[in-house]
Design a protein that fits this description.
heterodimer, A: 409 residues, mainly alpha, MetI-like fold, 5% strand, globular, B: 432 residues, 3 domains, two-stranded antiparallel ribbon, 16 helices
Chain lengths: 409, 432
């Protein structure tokens, strides 16, 4: 706008400059924007203040301390209907995180397998994976959740078929491997049973994990400094399993597996995965898995063929090419969309309300809201939870992105 | 030359040997099968597993479709007709399709109107979708369509959509007339003109509410797949311009504008759509004037539009960021001001880059319209879960109904994504 030969004239400020001079115009626009913003919010808040319903009820969070009075069918921490709304809310939040975590793990596994298989040179597998991806990507996840819920709640056999008849003959159905039973009340699975000294086992297991990391670091150091290549996979597996098994035997098996067993009327022991949890978990996994598959495929395709060929020319074996050359570059492309898929899973767990899984939306946004009528407060808290969670994950993602981004110039 | 060796060499071939056909295992179907299905032990196992999966799926699916019955008035009829053939009870679709498509409250005798609106869509869409192959004037059909569709679906006097259209037309003409005097001035003048026309028109409509009127249908009577389509189309088309504005705002150097846009986008992207629908359902009414008659569908449209526009803004921001910095500098060096640079140089390129992302958001949004069933609106999912599956006639007919829902959504979403891939190829102008 200004050139060397035409310096700005220092002739002071005129009102017309607020519109015509680019240096001042931005202030004008910002001022207008600010005024509009204040007017808009003022209008909304004014309406809220003048709203008869809201004026009578006020904004009040004390309802969180009142007894909730409703039951929750999946309780990761102890709860009964006399506990407060706050405790119900916390249980809902934990349930949200449980199903989100489970779905993230399985969606990643499914997605990576499907994404790699979609690039396989086997025609039929390639097409099957394409059908899987397109089918699940193009149909709403809500429909998948409800379909799987319907299957779990209607097509699985009733518990009565597992009952041992009076005459002591074999029941109609037995447990799969003596461990699993799929019924219309949910799927019974074995449970880890911790006796008194169980914490020792847990400590040993943690120590083993640390040991694995130490071994890997040691192997890498040997390789880089002395050029000696140590095996990594089998020793890691040994370190992971052996100490736990030995200690468990030595202490007389404080940690055992408790299988579900048929009692007189229902299963006793074991762990019950309810149809609502199964449907939510499974549907979110297969749905998001289809998206992750596309991300994985794109990531692998983004590594140019020359990289693979160059690595091969250096004499690397195919496994090494994958782990040292292709994957590190592909991961840089895959990880950011992967994390946003995890965020999507977490947000989509709010669909739990459609199948009655008691997550945060089911407790705080559902029953608590309906019982107390405190819509504004409940929804504010609900949003705050999801927002905090999402922003925290995005912050971590940004840090990660910065650390793996290509360092250019 | 040719007979130099005639004495010394017993035989000289005078013509080339015709090429032998390649070995049977290296040609045609055999080669293809060897290479693509049985190239190794692992691959062969995969092929067999794959074939088993396909066989298993088809062995359930084909009898279900072929043996299915389309006749019968309830589930008991179906069971009687089907016996043990494993067929599907498609009679539920034959009997309830109007409910699935239009909801259970839309008057029976008026169903021809939304049907006609969707048939007209076939005329209105091609000019926009295939703009590069059709003459420009056909776009008029697309421009007129929203008003015609509104009139057909909601009914009422024809004056309302006509006034709306006139307002936009007048605003556009004013904008064009004084565009040379600066984009912002022209935009403000155009908007003012449109509002004046709407205001005057509103008075006229208020005077003659029955003029050329067809029977009005209130919004709460919309339902079924029609509701999904209405929500999807309206929210996507509103959220694209909003998303562009938000993306530009987020890129802007003005701290207040930028701050507002960042907070808005991050907030909306951080919460699930369902919480926003709760807001529409129970909270939004607190923030609107008590006498204003916003019904649920409009509040839902407001919230879904906000939701989609934040996502579209992020997609467009990606497009803006992907443009080389030289493009911005070139626009500056030509002496273009901000609106000109954006409209002539930056946005056309950025939007082109963003097409796949925008379409992804649009498809995702269309799928998310099913969430309105959670706040007790009877869209396709709501219709199936509510009135149909809980009726005594059709209790237990899950597969047929959900398969129908899947089919409808799949056709629309897959069609949109295929179109966007085609459009992407059409718009590729770089020579790589």
């Amino acid at each position: 706008m200004t050139t060397m030969s035409d310096p700005p004239r220092a002739d002071g400020f005129r009102v017309s400059k607020l519109i015509n001079d680019t240096r001042y115009r931005s202030y004008t626009f910002q001022f207008i924007a600010l005024v509009l913003l204040i007017l808009g919010f003022g209008w909304l808040i004014n309406n809220a203040i003048n709203n008869p319903v809201l004026r009578e009820a006020g904004i009040d969070f004390t309802f969180l301390q009142a007894p909730a009075g409703y039951d929750i069918n999946q309780q990761p921490i102890s709860y009964d209907s006399q506990d407060t709304h706050l405790r119900a809310t916390i249980i809902g939040a934990i349930n949200t995180l449980i199903v989100a975590f489970l779905a993230c793990v399985t969606a990643t596994i499914l997605g990576v397998i499907a994404g790699v298989l979609r690039l396989s040179n086997n025609w039929i597998i390639k097409k099957l994976m394409a059908v899987y991806v397109e089918l699940f990507r193009n149909i709403p996840v809500l429909i998948w959740i409800i379909i799987i819920f319907t299957v779990a709640a209607n097509t699985f056999p009733p518990i009565s078929e597992f009952r041992i008849p009076r005459d002591g003959s074999d029941p109609e159905r037995g447990l799969l491997f003596g461990m699993f039973a799929a019924t219309n009340q949910g799927v019974f699975i074995p449970r880890l049973d911790f006796a008194e000294q169980g914490w020792i086992i847990a400590a040993v297991a943690l120590a083993s994990v640390a040991g694995v990391f130490c071994w890997r670091a040691f192997a890498r150091k040997e390789l880089y400094e002395k050029g000696r290549e140590l095996p990594v996979f089998w020793p890691s597996l040994l370190i992971l399993i052996l100490p736990v098994v030995i200690v468990n035997f030595a202490l007389g098996s404080p940690v055992g597996i408790e299988n579900p067993e048929m009692g007189r009327f229902r299963f006793e022991g074991g762990f019950l995965l309810r149809p609502s949890l199964i449907s939510l978990w499974f549907a979110l996994s297969v749905y998001t898995g289809a998206f992750i598959a596309e991300n994985v495929r794109a990531g692998i395709l983004a590594v140019s063929k020359g990289q693979t060929e160059a690595a091969a020319a250096l004499g690397l074996r195919p496994g090494r090419i994958m782990s040292l050359v292709v994957l590190p570059q592909a991961l840089r492309v895959i990880i950011p969309p992967l994390i946003s898929q995890y965020l999507n899973i977490t947000k989509n767990t709010s669909l739990a309300i459609a199948v009655g899984y008691m997550d945060l939306t089911g407790t705080l946004g559902g029953i608590t809201l309906n019982q107390t009528g405190r819509a504004l407060e409940c929804i504010l808290l609900l949003m705050l939870f999801y927002l905090t969670f999402s922003l925290a994950i995005s912050a971590i993602m940004n840090i990660y992105n910065r650390s793996v981004a290509l360092k250019e110039r | 030359m040719s007979d130099t060796h005639a004495q010394s060499v017993a035989f000289v071939r005078r013509s080339e040997i015709p090429p032998a056909p390649p070995p049977a295992r290296e040609t045609g179907a055999v080669k293809w099968v060897r290479e693509n299905l049985f190239s190794g032990a692992f691959n062969s196992i995969m092929t067999i597993v794959g074939l088993l999966i396909v066989f298993y799926l088809l062995s359930g699916l084909i009898p279900w479709i072929l043996n299915g019955t389309w006749e019968g008035s309830d589930i008991r009829d179906c069971r009687e007709i089907l016996g043990n053939s494993g067929g599907g009870c498609f009679a539920v679709l034959a009997e309830r399709w109007p409910q699935l498509l239009f909801g259970f409250q839309y008057p029976d005798y008026l169903r021809w109107r939304p049907t006609l609106a969707f048939v007209l869509l076939a005329v209105a869409l091609p000019p926009a979708l295939f703009a590069m192959y059709l003459p420009r004037w056909t776009l008029a059909a697309t421009a007129l369509y929203p008003f015609a569709a509104y009139w057909l679906i909601w009914g009422g006097t024809i004056l309302a959509p006509v006034v709306a259209a006139l307002g936009i037309l007048a605003g556009y003409l004013v904008f064009k007339a004084i565009e040379k005097r600066g984009f912002v001035t022209a935009l403000a003048a155009g908007a003012a003109t449109a509002f004046i026309v709407w205001w005057i028109g509103g008075l006229i409509v208020g005077e003659f509410p029955r003029m050329l009127s067809i029977e009005p249908v209130p919004s709460r009577q919309m339902g079924g797949f029609m509701l999904n389509l209405i929500l999807g189309v309206i929210c996507v088309s509103l959220s694209i311009p909003l998303g562009i504005v938000l993306a530009l705002g987020r890129q802007s150097r003005l701290p207040i504008v930028k701050g507002f846009c960042v907070v808005f986008i991050e907030f909306v992207r951080g919460v699930p759509l369902i919480t926003l629908l709760f807001v529409a359902n129970v909270v939004l009414a607190y923030f609107l004037p008590p006498d204003a008659n916003f019904d649920l569908i409009i509040r839902v449209i407001i919230m879904i539009t906000m939701f989609a526009s934040a996502y579209i803004a992020e997609v467009i921001r990606g497009g803006l960021a992907a443009l080389p910095k030289g493009q911005y500098e070139a626009a500056d060096s030509l002496g273009l001001d901000y609106p000109q640079a954006m409209r002539l140089i930056i946005l056309p390129q950025a939007l082109k880059i963003s097409i796949p992302g925008i379409v992804n958001v649009a498809v995702g949004l269309f799928k998310d319209t099913t969430l309105v069933s959670v706040i007790s609106m009877f869209d396709l999912v709501g219709m199936i879960r509510g009135p149909i599956l809980s009726s005594t006639d059709w209790v237990g007919v899950y597969w047929e109904l959900w398969a129908f829902a899947c089919l409808l959504f799949f056709v629309v979403c897959y069609g949109i994504s295929q179109y966007s891939q085609w459009l992407e190829r059409q718009l590729t102008t770089d020579h790589r």
